[in-house]
Structure of Calcineurin-like phosphoesterase family protein:
Amino acid sequence: MNLHLLKSLIASLFLVLILCLNNDVEAQQTQKFENPKLTDTASWSMVLLPDPQNYVKFQRNQPILDVMMNWITERIDSLHIKMVMCTGDLVEHDDIVNPDGKKMDQTGQQQWKAVAKAFGKLDGKIPYITATGNHDYNIFSYTHKPKTTHFPEYFPAEKNFLNQKMLREVAPNIYGNNSLENAAYEWRSPQGKPYLFLSIEFAPRDTILTWARELVAQKKYKDHAVVLLTHAYLKYTNEWIEKEGYDLPGANYGKAIWEKLVYPSSNIKLVISGHIGGVNDARKHVAFKTDKNNKGITVQQMTFNAQAMGGGHYGNGGDGWLRILEFMPDGKTIKVKTFSPLFALSPSTQNLAWRKANYDEFTFKLD
């Protein structure tokens, strides 16, 4: 090869390299990070928080939950956030007094105080509803005593006056005391659409399912869109959970909740749950299922969790993932997006702040 030809080849390769670099820069510029925003300024939104147990069981992870709560309060106005819902498992262990430092380094009381303090950032600013999960009860003592929990102590009705203002109905827990383990809240959207948010305990008893079914059938709620919040409902395969490994007599899981409560109720339009997860596998933390109830009305069922993202069950607690549900002005369409305020904090990680898979960003409609 002569010298002139070699110089021409090198120049051509150099030009190609420059063009590639320019294209990369342009691609990065076109993919510039954007914070969440509404697609319609007349919409309102709900934020869905996954199981926070792995945030609060380690002192080192608790600030991540604070980041999530602070992000919510900062965007109440811009995203028209009207409700926050949490899928349960607020703590890892209800009453442990001797954590080993490896599985957790916080006692049960410390965990309850931490999660109550985190939700305290929302108190007086926005209403929130949380389910109770299996870890919120004495799961290691099920065969020795009833499923007790410190939830009523740390999440009483008066904790957030905005919750109390919406509260309409409560049912007795295992000891016969009324608590927010089973409660219904009434609210109207900015467009005037009436909603009833109904939260029921982990593995609800038959008496609770009967109470809930009779409640939503009342004449005063017949025109409400009922949103049911419970902890253990769907598997990541989009099938109902039929049983769990806990020795709980009379317990009901996903399939039984569907058959005894959701299917026979004409106005339950949306079911939300958590509980499931696979280590560092986003797909195994989520599920979605659509079915018709006994009136032929569509029921949308969505599970969202993130507890084993960010390093597994002994990692950072879930990478800060949450979901934003945008309720469109038509009162039927809901747009779902999955976002991490933790990754969004720094320009060096903002490219990770959105999850765009079809199971993380999608749209569905309510009947």
Remarks:
- The two ends are 73 Å apart (CA to CA).
- Residues 44-365 form a domain with the Purple Acid Phosphatase; chain A, domain 2 fold (CATH 3.60.21).
